[in-house]
Amino acid sequence: MSATARKTALNAQDIRALKGERPIVSLTAYTTPMARLMDEHCDFVLVGDSVGMVLHGLSSTLGVTMEMMILHGAAVSRGLSHAMMVIDMPFGSYEESPQQAFRNAARLMAETGAAAVKLEGGVEMGETIRFLVKRGIPVMAHIGLTPQAINTLGGYKVQGRAEGAAPLIADAHAVTEAGAFAVVLEKVPATLADQVTSEITIPTIGIGASAGCDGQVLVVDDMLGFFTSFKPKFVKRYAELGPAAEEAIADYAAEVRARTFPAPEHTFADHAPKKD
Ligand code: KIV
């Protein structure tokens, strides 16, 4: 698809300039219809590697591939005309070297129309972020709980408590100095999120952080209540679409079995009326 055909009203510089002006609104999206629904309401839409867990049934984000991100990124791109699109770099696509990161980031942007990439890591990713930004790739950083590192973090734990605070603050400064235009703070204590937000010059985007962050992001399927058995503390459910969908499916199944669906209004006559 032609990436240039898509016109987004917002870009990385616009998002960065929102710090101190007004809260930045973001959600994840993985499909065209969902992207369409959020386009007018979000400043940026994140094609998160959470797609692997949300839509593909993976148990972590580690199995997400470049091909999966490109497929979903291109779909989301077709649903956006106002919000900026940011796409996650999947595990293993950027950690090896700045050159590897550039190759894969350029491919993600060229083949999806994304206006920026997001990658996980702080101090250790500084050199890579600088390399990408200098070569025309806007980077959103992601620190605190970085789900691609659950095996070294020991699970989906809150990050930055007690002696963990200083390294997290160092990460925030490192990604800022490297040229990231914004940074996601995931699952960090609220006071620490506030401190980081006041210390750095780029917007902080909270998820399980604090209302004092410069913006917020949530996984859309979580906030719409698609999953009944999964409810992290930081997710507010704005709807309960999972149970509503299941009820509708059960009604349909019952009506098919009772032969009450399709009803006459859903079937076609022998002779064509003016409009079918
Ligand atoms: O993959 C994802 O969805 C994310 C966020 C929710 C921050 O990285």
Which properties best describe this structure?
single chain, 276 residues, alpha/beta, TIM Barrel, eight-stranded parallel barrel, 11 helices, globular, disordered N terminus, binds 3-methyl-2-oxobutanoic acid
Structure report:
By secondary structure, the chain is an alpha/beta fold. It has a single domain, classed as Phosphoenolpyruvate-binding domains (TIM Barrel), CATH 3.20.20.60. 37% of the residues lie in helices and 14% in strands. It is built from eleven helices and eight strands. The chain has an eight-stranded parallel barrel with strand order 1-2-3-4-5-6-7-8, surrounded by five helices. Helix 2 packs across helix 4 and helix 4 runs parallel beside helix 5. 42% of the residues are buried. It binds 3-methyl-2-oxobutanoic acid. 3-methyl-2-oxobutanoic acid (KIV) binds next to strand 6.
Compact description:
The chain is of the alpha/beta class and 276 residues long.
Order of helices and strands: HEHEHHEHEHEHHEHEEHH
User: Residue share in helices?
Assistant: 25-40%
Q: N-to-C terminal Cα separation, in Å? A: 34 Å
Bound molecules: 3-methyl-2-oxobutanoic acid
Given as residue ranges, the uncertain stretches (5+ residues, pLDDT < 50) are 1-6
What is the count of distinct domains?
1
**CATH topology title:** TIM Barrel
The structure class reads alpha/beta
* C-alpha Rg (nearest Å): 21 Å
Morphology call: globular
Mean pLDDT: 95
Please state the second-level CATH architecture: Alpha-Beta Barrel
CATH class: Alpha Beta
* Largest β-sheet summary: 8 strands, parallel, barrel
Percentage of β-strand residues = 5-15%
